[in-house]
Design a protein that fits this description.
Helix content is 32%, strand content 26%. It is built from six helices and twelve strands.
């Protein structure tokens, strides 16, 4: 059985609730994939796609998962195709008008700010987290630490790998720049779902 820092997990969930992150606890990646497909199937069509070409209606919902390995992507694609979803793994620049759901796998969670750290070795992973309406991010419970000081060794290891990017994601996109009114989804997703996994 994997060891968890239960106090850090509880703190992560508490802080996540304060910034409107939807937290779900599931057993493994397969259950998380089914969850993402279900979210995509049940949501309304992407608003960006609807406004991109006035007068036309979107007819297919899109689920993108650029960071998955081939076997995991094949499993996700099979689930998505059963629901008649468009499944994509690369070429996010061709979908800048919007993606319904992005599915990513987080590398680490920082509890005191409800932050998920996402390694972004290529542009597609970075882009998908900004152009989707709903972001479903998986995070193994064993990878949640209490604060950023405890994340230091992981971050040093990331730097040692050479040129790379990491995103620190603490909720959906929000801004109060527009007439001091809190607005979501201006610079990224309207919703962030963090799926805490029992298994790595």
């Amino acid at each position: 059985m994997t060891n968890f820092d239960q106090a850090a997990i509880d703190l992560f969930k508490k802080k996540a609730a304060s910034v409107s992150i939807v937290v779900v606890e599931l057993k493994n990646l397969a259950e998380a994939m089914a969850y993402a497909v279900d979210i995509c199937d049940k949501k309304e069509f992407c608003r960006l796609l609807l406004s991109d070409q006035p007068g036309e209606r979107a007819t297919v919902k899109t689920l993108a998962a650029p960071g998955l390995n081939e076997a995991d992507y094949a499993a996700l694609a099979a689930l998505g195709q059963k629901k008649k979803l468009a499944m994509i793994r690369q070429g996010m620049r061709e979908h800048l008008s919007g993606i319904d759901v992005a599915f990513t796998t987080g590398a680490m969670g920082i509890a005191d700010t409800a932050t998920s750290v996402l390694e972004c070795p290529d542009e597609d992973v970075r882009l998908v987290t900004m152009i989707c309406e709903t972001h479903v991010l998986t995070l193994p419970k064993a990878k949640i630490v209490g604060d950023s000081y405890q994340a230091e060794s992981y971050l040093r290891g990331l730097l040692a790998k050479g040129p790379n990017y990491a995103s620190f994601i603490s909720g959906s996109s929000r801004t109060s720049d527009i007439e001091r009114v809190l607005t979501t989804g201006v610079h990224g997703p309207l919703e962030l779902h963090v799926v805490l996994l029992e298994e790595e």
